[in-house]
């Protein structure tokens, strides 16, 4: 496949040299620059995705140079440095307004998983008590009591994860669905 693409590229260059250069040398040079720049940008994207950033940046700069020339690169460099300076000013302004904000934000950088605490082993008596049922309640009563309590105690409804875990454990104990 690579050999086929190389052969096609050589054939294209031969055709450009034979026809386009004779008619308009400036137009052919412009076409070669645009084609080369586009191919260099495509190759840069491919190389960056494949995990070779050093080669990707070189190809990216070469593609931009071919497409925009030296003035275009300078213009882009100035715009990038202005953007970095703007971010630096913004960061300094935010730090001035809220001096401890960065430390507070970094303190909880990786809170980890927030799983509810394991309610532990529960007796059948405790399970009936948690669900507010009398001993010997039917399976349908257990499900109805669980649903009613979860509507009130679910963390999305204002309850806590511990309360919801305890209600779920009581339901599991009474329906013999140990996990």
What does it look like?
The chain is an all-alpha fold and 179 residues long. Helices cover 76% and strands 0% of the residues.
Topology:
Blueprint: H1 2-23, H2 25-49, H3 53-97, H4 101-107, H5 124-131, H6 139-153, H7 161-174
**Number of helices in the DSSP assignment:** 7
**For the terminal residues, how far apart are their CA atoms?**
55 Å
Helix content: over 70%
Structural class computed from helices and strand pairing? mainly alpha
Give the radius of gyration. Answer: 34 Å
In terms of DSSP E residues, the strand content is under 5%
Largest sheet: none
How many beta-strand segments?
Answer: 0
Give the overall form: elongated
State the order of secondary-structure elements, H for helix, E for strand: HHHHHHH
Counting copies of identical and different chains, the oligomeric state is single chain
Indicate the mean pLDDT: 81
Low-confidence stretches: none
Summarize the structure in short.
The protein has about 180 residues and is mostly helical. The chain has seven helices and no strands. Helix 2 crosses helix 3 and helix 5 crosses helix 7.
Top keywords for this entry?
about 0% strand; elongated; about 180 residues; mainly alpha
